[in-house]
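Chain A, query sequence.
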Amino acid sequence: MRTGIRFLLGNEPRHLSDVDPTQTVLDYLRDDETLCGTKEGCAEGDCGACTVMLAERDGTGGIRYRPVNSCIMFMAALDGKQLVTIEHLRGPEGKLHPVQQAMMDHHAAQCGFCTPGFVMSLATLHQAGATVERAEIADALAGNLCRCTGYRPIYDAARSALAKPRGAEDRVADAVTLAAALNALDSGAETLDVTGSGRRFVAPRSLDELTRLLAHHPDALILGGGTDIGLWVTKQRQSLALLVATEHVPELRKIAVTETLLSIGAAVPYADAMASLTALHPETVTLLRRIGSRQIRERGTIGGNIANASPIGDMPPLLIAMGAVLVIVSAKGERRLAVEDFFKGYRRTDLQPGEVLAAIEIPKPTPDLRLGIYKVSKRFDQDISAVCAGFSFALDGERVRSIRIGYGGMAATPVRARDVEAKLIGAVWGLPAVEAAMAGIDHAFTPLSDMRASASYRSLIARNLLLKFYLEHPAAGEMPARIRLDQPESLPV
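Chain A, predicted structure.
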């Protein structure tokens, strides 16, 4: 067991003991290291001014670089990694990094407050050898806000920097050398157990160790990526007595594919799971890209999105539609539970003391299964859903053989719309059946009004998303005769 945090700051080793494990990386950089290039804008992972680069071993001897929000990342999560800030990008004799030079050449900095975050997001893209595709650049910068409206020159700078050949001198570090340095800091076998300022952080190294720890401390707070829990500290000023991290539990970081299902460990970040999910269901790509920014997706975990039991979490409606099953473990054994049965009330789940969500199992689709997933929010990027809906169905001829409908934002929990499904099972897949099911949505849900949407708007959207799914998946593969885009009055409301 190790009681100190070990990491590289740039290329310099840091060994910290008696440190508050829930101190944010941003506060450490600015207050302890006086590295003030990293800025605090929102302290909740939205604006990107605090973006830094995190390097970690990828399990194959290589290095994975991730852009992350330092404002909601705890210090203990740095253990065994390299932290790179804008101050570490300069080369010998003060030579600017290609992204920094491009930002200057294209006059991409105005007030300059957001600039370090933009540079770090683009430097991570540069380090990965990304192309100059507009969509990739836009996705990389979706989590960085410029209040001076300087996006065009920033985009021009990104295109310029990424278009040029990248030599070894432009890399942040040599992968082999860095991997050896990180191995020297952390063998991967020692459990991290840090205590400071009355708070404790434990990072078990196996599932058995994790479940034994939870059996002794059933009230411990389980930490995945921390993209939600981080706000409990920065915004709510909570004092978290005991955090048990899942990040270093190999069994919870696995992605496995069998003949019948895709299994994703609960501690797998979104960014690592996206390729497998989109290979299974290409329709999921847009929703997955809209779950936070790249900074959030590099830390946030699918298991965390489920276990925090938010009624407006984006993954549960999709997983309900997919027919996913949760694997829950404890020192007593293992059990499985359908996603829709996991939520017991507002922010309450079926997890019992000592249990942890270990994996999500998603059945492979049959050839005739059709899937649709829709998110409605005020902004396309970086926004929380007003309503999120997932649909899947299969037909026998013209009749509905099976259908699953999941909604978020329509109740105190994510829900499966069983009553709506019942109106469609066995019915001819056509507008009359869909309209009847749409009418049933009003009776099935009593949504709330809040800052994101009114109850009546949510009900309207929930109905219309079912209609949208039908329009995109008609039985005969053609636009239904009664609905014409040039005759909007024919649309049901």
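The longest helix spans residues 455-472. Confidence is low (pLDDT under 50) at residues 484-488.
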